Amino acid sequence: MKKILFIFVGILCILPLKAKVRLPAIIGNDMVLQQNTKANLWGWSARSQKVIVRTSWDNKAYTTTSALDGAWKIQVQTPSAGGPFTITISDGELVILTNILIGEVWLCSGQSNMEMPVKGFRGQPVKGSCDAIATSLPSDDIRMVTLKINSSQTLLDDCISTPWMESSPANVADFSATAYFFANYLRKVLKVPVGVICSSWGGSKIESWINKEVYMEKFPEISLSALTKDPKDIARPKDEPTLLYNAMIHPITQFTIKGVIWYQGESNLNNPKVYKRLFPAMVESWRKEWKQGEFPFYYVQIAPYDYGRKNADNTEAAEIRQVQLECLKEIPNAGMVVTSDIGNRTCVHPSDKENVGKRLALWALAKTYQRNGTPYSGPIYKSFTIDKEKLIVEFDYVEMGMTSYDQEITGFEIAGKDGVYYPAKATLFDNKTKVILTSEQVPEPVEVKYGFRNYQPLNLFSNFGLPASPFVAK
Fold first, then answer.
1. Class of domain 103-368 as given by CATH
2. How far apart are CA 209 and CA 242, in angstroms?
3. Distance CA 125, CA 116 (A)
4. Domain locations in the chain?
5. Does the reported pTM lie above 0.70?
């Protein structure tokens, strides 16, 4: 015991008695802080050092003392949206943060469809990218920061990221298209600055975005051996449990946010049953880590894609979409964007990211910002009834009816007790709020599918142009 105490005292003695404040990468010039809340600011200094933070919007000083390891944290009261403002932080040496805006802050995470920049990937364009890039201005009051891809076997206190960036052609071109279009739509409607934090890694599995404690408590059957391997033996850290959470989520869990948007799932086609358990557990754990209650969590249902040109009629992706649909009822304060109309048969990265961002923003505007009357969801399967040879499907979110824009409705299939599915003729009725399905091959239907394939063109929409979600029901 004396030996341990001696070592501890020795470590304290070599810590600097005075050092300039160091801030985490996520805190810096040009950032956006969440409005009308107590926003966290934190960093490191010398041990037991008095740290003073002063905010220019109210000229108020906040004081704390750093811990023995030098860490400190302060909450500052933010005003309604505005700026630019200045924040000064001092432990004897002054650090000045400039051009700070107050507004709405959202975390944007997932895999490559969240990562895909406005300029697109090589040979994989983003619709509307030219106008979005060319017309962007600092006065748009959209601020962006991207975490660099990184992994760790242990929890990291800081991340590797770009600086916070103003809206400009070069900056917008390199930033997440889904996140940018989401932010741009919010900013136009709310008329306040919007900050978006992108933390994504192409090809990543959901397992890697979940912290170790979740596995230990709820998923003991999932191996955590990657946490003790030689890092050189980990070929794909984005496939391994916890590694991305440690490096790309945990370091920013103190940053005060409004909510999260999420676009991921393509890398988890192999086990939809496990995904259905992991996804709600991840959301629950993130909310626990942020200590902000059940903040909104809006996610994207993966888009149609054939996964290899010969697999359009397979159902691996359809099963993930079904799981994502079912999670809508399991995750509190959540919303799901449907992309059944914008998939690309030969590319896993749909080009229409503008509509994805817009649809995510519609959920936020309607549910988070309480803009009553805002449409936000396309038709969602509710139930079905059987009337002799007819199968009648009811939907939620169809108060104004549905449409296929004068085209024959595609994508419905029905099956009898033998479980063999046949294409069904679909007809809208009851003020276009329900669909009647029939098939000569199925005189006594008991099951129904809609768009339940890896790739299938679909054309059923709400009266506001929002697509119906694929589903299967028995």
1. alpha beta
2. 6
3. 10
4. 2-102, 103-368, 380-473
5. yes
